Amino acid sequence: MYLSAAVRSMLTGLILCSLRVAATQQLRHPPTRIAVVGAGIGGTSAAYFLRQKFGKDVHIDVFEKSDVGGRLATIEMEGNQYEAGGAVIHPLNLHMKAFVKDLGLSPRTPSADLLGIYNGDEFVFQESEWFLINIIKMLWNYGLNFIRMYMWVEEILDKFMRIYRYQTFDYSFSTTESLLHAMGGDDFISKLNMTIDEAMQKSGFTQRFIDDIVVPAMRVNYGQGVKINGFVGAVSLAGTDSGLWAVVGGNNLVCSGLLYSAKAQLIQGTVTSVQEKVRSTKPGNIVTLYEISYITDTGPGLDLYDIVVIATPLNGNLGNIKFVGFDPPIKTFSRPYQQTVTTFVHGRINASFFGYSKSCQFPLSEILTTENPKLFIHSISAVSPVNPVPESDASKASGLRVWKIFSPEVLIDEQLHQLFESYHAVKVRSWLAYPKYSPPEKMPPIKLHRAIYYLNSIEWAASAMEMSAISAKNVALLSYHQWYRKDDHIDQEDLAERLKTEL
Ligand SMILES: Cc1cc2nc3c(=O)[nH]c(=O)nc-3n(C[C@H](O)[C@H](O)[C@H](O)COP(=O)(O)OP(=O)(O)OC[C@H]3O[C@@H](n4cnc5c(N)ncnc54)[C@H](O)[C@@H]3O)c2cc1C
Ligand SMILES: *[C@@H]1O[C@H](CO)[C@@H](O)[C@H](O)[C@H]1NC(C)=O
Ligand SMILES: *[C@@H]1O[C@H](CO)[C@@H](O)[C@H](O)[C@H]1NC(C)=O
Predict the structure, then answer these.
(1) Cα distance between residue 406 and residue 378, in whole Å
(2) Do 234 and 156 contact (CB within 8 A), yes or no?
(3) Which of the listed residues 150, 167, 440, 468 has the most CB atoms within 10 Å of its CB?
(4) How far are the Cα atoms of 252, 258, 269, 380, 497 from residue 261, in angstroms, in the given order?
């Protein structure tokens, strides 16, 4: 058939036009399948938020090679369960709070304990049961440093809380830096470039206060001293606030609850690789999908997904996921994680190890430590089970308690014999617990590829349950806006100002 040039070009135009329509329409189709790798608090809350955003029809698979909960896990000791990983939650951690409420779980507040800070020779700080005495001691030794610290943390927390407002209004961020910048501007970003030591010195805290009070807080929370970055340092100091809480039955119940609530499919298996696959569905219509290879007890498996969320650290032996055939290649991040060993001991603490005479009743139930090479522990504290049981008077009088110790290395028998007068049960769990922080800190990317997201980038700013939950919501929003091309909800500037007038 003969067609005039004009008609031909008109037709080509039409075809191109309809192809373009097909292409954009294809982008606006909802995704059919989403994969989440890792069922810790990050992965399970990602599944929950992805379901909220993408609706009831999308299929969500969550891969887990070990136990649901990841770094939230309990350990059994003489019939009771104790938190062995992530233990306490800040009262202003709004996502964790909302999860517990939505899932019908209950919060518990660990009992207020008398705290001491031991430097290897003596206690540099020791709480008494008398509130007024505590205040006088603090003022005497540290002047206004305590009050100033409270205000310093409060100011940071105030800015931190902005993220909840942004997320309520559906705003997302494509990098961890831009997320932090939206919360606290250059001030937050610059905290990644300095140590908490430098940050606090700059704000006028005394070296004595930093050595005696701040160092022990960093050691108990992050197993590292004050050379960690200023942002994670501030998060760690917020952990000294009052009102910390945990979940009755175990914090990991939040993870299994979120999975169930998200109607996600749990696949018990180890993801080994992610590969890009190009498929043409009909002529002129190509889609790119991600193929996930995994290994379960029954053998290897393969599945295709539109969106992939990596919710585990991608550090060497932690993630061990290969990204095959990407151009440019997806880099893996080889920076190390810090080992922290949790040891549970049922026994009587050796008061004389801490300079007390053996006969007197040891008053403290939480001991933090300063930096001293001869100290082999970071902290030791009496703990209660995740299901509260009344402590019997008999066991109280006998001084027998369950103690939880954090240390950088596995404790040897000789060390346990020094710490305890007597003991009859020991349980140990080692973790690659959190990043080894070393500012200036460069954040790994959140977006690894067109529709592959890395939730644990945020851990390099600070590792905590709430940080993973915030990142999970961010990744759910970001993947949604990128899928539907809603650029006006990604990396917006001046949100704090713009949202002031919104209700
Ligand atoms: C001892 C300790 C104490 C802590 N204390 C606190 C605290 O008091 N408060 C607080 O807020 N935070 C605390 N944290 C930090 C907190 O626990 C973590 O930041 C948080 O739990 C991280 O959750 P996540 O889901 O991002 O990662 P994870 O919990 O590590 O989840 C990742 C999951 O992915 C799985 N996985 C890995 N690779 C693969 C693969 N290839 N295929 C399939 N699955 C895979 C893993 O098995 C794991 O279950 C503590 C951590 C530790 C270790
Ligand atoms: C932080 O340090 C990096 C280099 O390590 C630099 O590129 C960046 O500009 C610094 N940011 C701030 C806010 O100082
Ligand atoms: C207790 O601590 C003291 C002082 O460090 C030590 O001499 C003693 O051996 C420890 N052990 C016991 C069981 O008392």
Answers:
(1) 5
(2) yes
(3) 468
(4) 14, 5, 21, 36, 35
Q: Residue 261 has which token pair?
A: 């609530």
Q: Is 202 exposed, middle or buried (CB count within 10 Å of its CB: 0-12, 13-18, 19+)?
A: exposed
User: Which residue from 94, 167, 29 is spatially nearest to 489, judged by alpha carbons?
Assistant: 167
Pairing of strands 420-435, 366-369: unpaired
82: CA distance to ligand 3 center in Å? 27
347 CB neighbour count, 10 Å cutoff: 19
By CB neighbour count within 10 A (0-12 exposed, 13-18 middle, 19+ buried), where does 487 fall?
Answer: exposed
Of 396, 442, 367, 415, the C-alpha closest to 177 is 442
Site to probe by mutation for ligand 2, drawn from 176, 193, 437, 441 as the one with most ligand atoms within 8 Å of Cβ, is 193
Q: Are strands 447-449 and 452-454 parallel, antiparallel or unpaired?
A: antiparallel
Amino acid letter, 70: G
Who's near 448: CB < 8 A, 6+ residues apart? 310, 323, 330, 454
Q: How far apart are CA 134 and CA 125, in angstroms?
A: 10
**Which residues lie below 8 Å from residue 231, measured CB to CB, with a gap of 6+?**
180, 188, 191, 192, 461, 462
Distance, in Å, from the CA atom of 36 to the CA atom of 165, rounded to the nearest integer, reads 25
Which residues have a Cβ under 8 Å from the Cβ of 242 and sit 6 or more positions away?
none
Q: Name the percent of the chain in helix, strand, coil, to the closest 5.
A: 40, 25, 35
The end-to-end CA distance of the chain, in Å, is 64
CA 121 to ligand 3 center in whole angstroms: 14
Q: What is the 3 state secondary structure string of 169-210? A: CCCECCCHHHHHHHHHHHHHHHHCCCEHHHHHHHCCCCHHHH
Separation of CA 387 and ligand 1 centre (Å): 22
Say whether 58 sits in a helix, a strand or coil. coil
pTM for the structure as a whole: 0.93
Per the structure block, which two tokens stand in for 475?
């990744």
> Which residues form the pocket of ligand 2, taking CB atoms under 6 Å from any ligand atom?
186, 189-190, 193, 440
458-495 pLDDT, tens digit each: 999 999 999 999 999 999 999 999 999 999 999 998 99
Closest atom of ligand 2 relative to the 192 alpha carbon: 1
The ligand whose atoms approach the alpha carbon of 438 most closely is 2
- Residue 62 bridge partners (DSSP): 36, 266
Output the pLDDT for position 430: 98
Q: Contact at 8 Å (CB) between 38 and 67?
A: no
Spatial CA neighbour of 187 closest among 162, 155, 163: 155
- The ligand with the least distance to the CA atom of 121 is 3
Ranges in the chain, pLDDT < 70: 1-27, 316-318, 358-360, 391-397, 503
Q: Report how far ligand 2's centroid is from the alpha carbon of 229 (Å).
A: 13
Residue 199, CA distances (Å) to 13, 195, 233, 370, 385 in order: 61, 6, 9, 19, 37
